[in-house]
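job 3f2a | input accepted
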Amino acid sequence: MDRLTSMAVFVRVAECGSFAAAATALGLSSQMVGKHVRFLEERMGVRLISRTTRRQSLTEVGRAFCERCRLVLAEAETADALVEDLRAAPRGRLRVNAPFSFGACDLVPMMARYLRQHPEVSIELTLNDRVVDLVNEGCDAVIRIGPLADSTLMARRLAPYRLVASASPAYLAERGTPERPEDLARHECLGFAYWTPRNEWHFTDAEGLHAVRIRGRLSINGGQALRVAAIEGLGITMQPEGMVREDFAAGRLVRVLPGYEAPSRPVSLLFAPDRQPTPKLRSFIDAVAAAFG
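job 3f2a | predicted structure (293 res):
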């Protein structure tokens, strides 16, 4: 039998003075009330209620136990109320992981808006470009860019991660501006170390797909570092639109091959399967979907 339920029945018997009165108050049979009391007595090996044909009264142990039961039941109700309160409004800490470039350029501005809307939520954001194990590393949500492997995790698809090719005005003045993707074979192209294949870029136009073998003396495993290298005139880079948008506006970088579409990569928000996610996680998922869906 459920221990807390039996304790609640016992307290009601003590308050009502008899099994019959407690049964009426609880909507149970007298036999079921008696079973709950006997369960507690047998579990602890003591008599809680003295029973005679005329009256029932608490033993000395029963009186002490009844007071403790009231405290335990009150604490249980407080715990239930706390859980309900936590489920009602977003609060608490969220642990989120995302790739460096997407996290720094796109996710952080969105998080600033989210945190202003939910002042009782805090976020611990980690940025790296490796595949993070959401469950083992204790994350609530993970942003992944690229195809997803089969998994038991829940996935929310977001808008594709669009890339653009760009270079500094100084580089283009020195080396010339490529007119077609095939022209990149004669240029210094800055490689991202985690891309596969690392030495091939893809573009599309009305004629179809252009797969270009690129070369370059510099390869980096971070998008921001590649952006800085391009600004310094070291070559042509392929970066997310969000990362270089301000550089285009300021003239630090110039888009190359504007008539061709660079590849886009799928973006997903992953979280553990839970039929009833907490308000903080549910509100964060909705906010990410609204910003990047």
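job 3f2a | The first helix runs from residue 3 to 16.
job 3f2a | closed
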